[in-house]
Design goal:
Blueprint: H1 2-9, H2 18-32, H3 35-44, H4 49-74, E1 80-82, H5 86-100, H6 105-129, H7 131-138, H8 141-163, E2 166-169, E3 173-176, H9 182-203, H10 209-225, H11 235-247, H12 254-260, H13 269-297, H14 310-327, E4 332-334, H15 338-343, H16 349-361, H17 366-369, H18 378-389, H19 400-416, H20 419-436, H21 445-462
Antiparallel strand pairs: 1-4, 2-3
Helix pairs in contact: 2-16, 3-4, 3-5, 4-11, 4-14, 4-16, 5-6, 6-12, 6-13, 6-14, 7-13, 8-18, 8-19, 8-20, 9-10, 9-18, 10-18, 13-21, 19-20, 20-21
Length: 471
């Protein structure tokens, strides 16, 4: 077995050992296993149990498949799962939009899976031809840095809202919750302490700090509310049933395809096209950024300064996204938490194999997952938002051509409750500033096409052709 593993993954050749690879795989898993709970909670929104169950199963299976692809096809120590921010974006664009329009949120969820499926096909075509990497690297650096930072602010806002720490206010838009009522203050306090707990554990480099923070918040919640968790052994069967009924069947239903391009659920054909482009762009930045960062840390770069087997890694990512849509979850992407396993010594696909096996075990833990209150995942969202904001520090704030588009991208995502709006407004402002300052060049053609598409979309919203809530 030892020789087989060594031959399959090239462990000795990479300067690693089987023991090191196993430890690295476990490290990666504990660094990112919070997604098992956060992903279904984000996509289900206010707790639609059918959607939650479907995404719980589909998300885990997609993570297993995507990570196995990294293990055997790319032979790299990187793991994949549903992307943070993208799952929140999925909820706002499809599930929340359906509810706002008075439609069935399950049908909105299924229509969204069709959009992800189409974007997965585009991912695969772009990856197979090498165009995906060229498009991602051709975009302005300021927007590459601002987009993940803006997503960080967006999901942090969602986390604070889910915790009940901030609430809507008709005078100031948002405000601090009424903490004089213990029923409101208790979960908010539990979530706040959870954020502090994750920060402290991370400061001491404790592996799995986020999942420990979720568990800690759960404990605080039950202590502060003086309630006991209800143990229900039946959800495993219900979870797989919902997965089979509304998740895995969605992209094979004609009705889902009709809804995906309808005005009621998405906002029309043009909105659907822009949503596909937006999911493509965000996933490009996530994957390229993660690959470069983790590969550089592991000294796994080629002579041109690019990650080794990068094209295969991006192909794995596109196949996983396509698979995830079929299985009922939002865009699958390469997780930045893979860097934790790399830092622990992971250098080969065996690291990914171990991580995938750990995810597979989680399939049968839905009764345990149901004990976790919704507020317990809020600290994870806020902390991941903190981590994603560090990208913004690399923006050149002395150059207004970079600073203004980056800033608009950053703030418009949380303020308009849309990742797409942030990208669109940032892209349009970058092109206009470049034109009026004489800095426009042929390298800006791609961002100009993107800006033009968003400009048309905003014009359609302005004229009332499409409802603003749909995008």
């Amino acid at each position: 077995m030892k020789n087989l593993l060594d031959k399959t993954f090239g462990i000795t050749e990479s300067g690693s050992t089987i023991k090191t690879e196993i430890i690295a795989g476990l490290t990666t898993f504990f660094a990112m296993c919070y997604i098992v709970l956060v992903n279904p909670t984000q996509i289900a929104g206010d707790g639609n149990p059918q959607i939650w169950n479907s995404v719980f199963v589909g998300g885990i299976i997609a993570a297993v498949i995507g990570t196995l692809l990294m293990a055997f096809l790319a032979r790299l120590p990187f793991a994949q799962a549903a992307g943070m921010g993208l799952n929140s974006f999925f909820f706002v664009c499809f599930v929340l939009t359906a509810m706002t329009a008075g439609e069935d949120p399950v049908e909105g969820y299924q229509a969204g899976l069709v959009i992800i499926f189409v974007s997965g096909i585009i991912f695969m075509l772009l990856s197979a031809t090498g165009l995906r990497h060229k498009i991602a690297t051709a975009l302005p650096e300021c927007l590459k840095k601002a987009i993940p930072a803006g997503i960080g602010l967006f999901i942090a806002l969602l986390g604070l809202k889910a915790a009940g720490i901030i609430v809507a206010d008709r005078y100031t838009l948002v405000s601090l919750a009424d903490l004089t009522q213990w029923s409101i203050a208790a979960p908010a306090l539990a979530a706040f302490l959870g954020i502090i707990l994750i920060a402290v554990l991370s400061k001491f480099n404790v592996k799995g700090s986020i999942i420990l923070g979720i568990l800690g918040t759960t404990l605080f919640y039950y202590l502060f509310t003086w309630s006991a968790p209800a143990w229900d052994p039946t959800p495993i069967g219900e979870t797989f049933r919902d997965f089979g009924e509304i998740g895995i069947t969605a992209v094979f239903q004609g009705e889902s395809w009709v809804n995906a391009f309808s005005t009621e659920y998405i906002g029309g054909v043009f909105s659907a096209i822009l949503l596909i482009i937006t999911f493509c762009l965000v996933d490009m930045f996530d994957t390229v950024g993660t690959l470069y960062g983790a590969a550089a840390e592991a000294n796994m770069m080629d002579e041109n300064g690019n990650p080794i087997r990068m094209e295969k890694a991006m192909l794995c990512d596109s196949i996983a996204t396509l698979t995830g849509a079929v299985l009922g979850t939002s865009t699958i992407t390469t997780f930045v938490e893979s860097s934790a396993g790399v830092a622990a010594g992971g250098r080969t696909g065996l690291t990914s194999l171990v991580t995938a096996m750990c995810f597979a075990v989680c399939l049968f833990l839905s009764p345990v997952a149901n004990i976790i209150p919704g507020v317990a995942t809020a600290p994870a969202l806020v902390f991941v938002g903190v981590l994603m904001l560090k990208n913004f520090s690399k923006v050149d704030m002395n150059d207004m051509r970079s600073a203004v588009p980056a800033f608009l991208t950053l703030v418009m995502m949380p303020l308009t409750y849309s990742i797409a709006n942030g990208i669109g407004i940032g892209a349009i402002s970058y092109v206009l500033i470049s034109l009026f300052t004489g800095k426009y060049s042929k390298d800006d053609i791609i961002i100009t096409v993107i800006a033009a598409l968003f400009a048309v979309r905003f014009a359609l919203v302005f004229t009332g052709t499409y409802p603003v809530y749909a995008f």
